[in-house]
Design brief:
globular; single chain; binds D-xylitol-5-phosphate; binds zinc ion; 8 strands; 8-stranded parallel beta sheet; alpha/beta
């Protein structure tokens, strides 16, 4: 297990467990990690900020028992600062919040950081990149949503790629650029060319039966 993923360079593949079979979550997690995945992406949805309800601390806690892999938790909830502590207690090592859910993104990032986790900020496709810039100094990770959040299996939106270039230019060497939504064999390279470091992949990894072959093919698109 990595102690500090932000000290590691190179492309990282993060399966989103939203597309896993929850009836056998531990073995699904084991399968993608044995298949070559780097870290895990966990999507928390409250049915309020997004029109779907996924899972919360109890499932994160159970998943934590199955692996020591790094947990990149994506909060699609209306009160991220209020729930961040429960997520960290359950096993989250990084908390990413949606800029649309907070008044002061820099303050929210600093509040979450006091919990001892790393912090990420994300924005919906329709949200201008300027909204996150005031918080850039206070985060470890910027997540560009390439679908409207709420569901896996949606179509990649290439119109968000210019945001990647704007953000990439402003990141410090210890910060990372992540993308989430519709990433698969035909879209991963385009995202990499826009400067993305970390790739969240749900349906394109969990739907095919051979996860090792799928992750290998995705990594080959990134140049191995
Ligand atoms: C969507 C989530 C994504 C999603 C990705 O709101 O934030 O992480 O699970 O799934 P795919 O890769 O299938 O688009
Ligand atoms: Zn996500």
């Amino acid at each position: 297990m990595t102690t500090n993923p932000f000290a590691e360079t190179g492309h990282k593949i993060l399966p989103s467990i939203l597309s896993a079979d929850f009836a056998k979550l531990a073995s699904e997690i084991g399968d993608v990690l044995a298949g070559g995945a780097d870290f895990l992406h966990l999507d928390v949805m409250d049915g309020h900020f997004v029109p779907n309800i996924s899972f919360g601390p109890p499932v994160i806690k159970s998943a934590r028992k199955a692996t020591q892999a790094f947990f990149d938790v994506h909060l699609m909830i209306s009160d991220p600062v209020g729930y961040a502590s429960a997520m960290v207690k359950a096993g989250a090592q990084s908390i990413t919040f949606q800029v649309e859910t907070v008044e002061d993104p820099a303050k929210a990032a600093q509040e979450i950081r006091t919990l001892g986790c790393t912090v990420g900020i994300t924005l919906n496709p329709a949200t201008p990149v300027e909204r996150i810039l005031p918080a850039l100094d206070h985060v470890n990770l910027v997540l560009i949503m390439s679908v409207v959040p709420g569901f896996g299996g949606q179509k990649f939106m290439p119109e968000v790629l210019p945001k990647c270039e704007v953000v990439k230019k402003r990141l410090r060497p210890d910060q990372r650029l992540e993308i989430d939504g519709g990433i698969h064999l035909d879209t991963i390279q385009t995202a990499a060319n826009a400067g993305v470091d970390w790739f969240v992949i749900g349906s394109a990894i969990f739907d095919p039966p051979d996860r090792r072959a799928t992750i290998g093919a995705l990594r080959a698109k990134l140049g191995g």
